[in-house]
Amino acid sequence: MLNKVPEVTLIFWIIKIMSTTVGETGADYLAVHVGLGTGLTGAIMAMLLGGALLLQLRAQAYVPWIYWLTVVLVSVVGTQITDALTDGLNVSLYVSTTVFAVALAAIFATWYAAERTLSIHTIVTSRREVFYWTAILFTFALGTAAGDLATEALQLGFQLGVLVFGGLIALVTLAYYRGANPILTFWIAYVLTRPLGASLGDFLSQAQQYGGLGLGTIMTSAVFLVVIVALVAMVSVTAVQRRNASVGDEA
After folding, report:
1. Averaged pLDDT for residues 191-210
2. Transmembrane segments in this chain: where (predicted)?
3. Cα–Cα distance between 131 and 62 in angstroms, integer?
């Protein structure tokens, strides 16, 4: 089986941040505006995620549209998990952030003990892929809880949240280029993109009296989905061209 994770490029991070924004605004739209509620929205999205994961696990190589569809659905489900704890069970954001951080650390420890690596460049077995997607789900849940903790409980607000989390990602990027461990910096940045995307989504979609631009969840989700689809299509075409070129060189 070939590596099932895309190359980490600028386009990768753009799609990742946009998928987290869609996860935030999409979950809010379905749960609040459509009126499905957190429980029903979570159940529907979990079923869709199960189908996408099945497609992803059955594939023998990286397929862009399957991979990114799975990421978007994981984003929605991760958001719903945190919202269910916070809004449905009244669990403190301090508690949920701590619990998700500990759970993610346990997943990484188990993954490393079993595989001796946490590198995304070696997702070449089914077991590693299961570890990978489990970690991804908890990064979204942790990112959602941490983002809500910062913007709501600590009252940073959406605009300042975008600046704070964007600045933290910039520091992690600088550390990477200064020689910091690439696996560690990747996973830290991956967690931080979730609250960045959520803060960005809230800033764009929420009404102006709440500190947003008032674009609404429908408009914000639609625009970001169109951009995601366009970027994934571009990545897919590039991947096909590379495979064709590789076959031509072998011939």
Report:
1. 84
2. 30-55, 62-81, 93-114, 130-150, 156-177, 184-204, 210-235
3. 16
Residue by residue, DSSP assigns 73-94 as HHHHHHHHHHHIIIIIS---HH
CA distances (Å), origin 56, targets 40, 63, 117, 169, 188: 24, 8, 21, 28, 24
Residue 173, pLDDT above cutoff 80: yes
Query: 195 near 129, Cβ under 8 Å?
Result: no
Q: Is residue 4 part of a domain?
A: no
Q: Which residue has the tokens 């704890």?
A: 85
Question: Model pTM?
Answer: 0.88
Residue 2 in any domain: the answer is no
Only one residue has tokens 């696996």, namely: 183
208 in any annotated domain: yes
Q: How many domains does the chain have?
A: 1
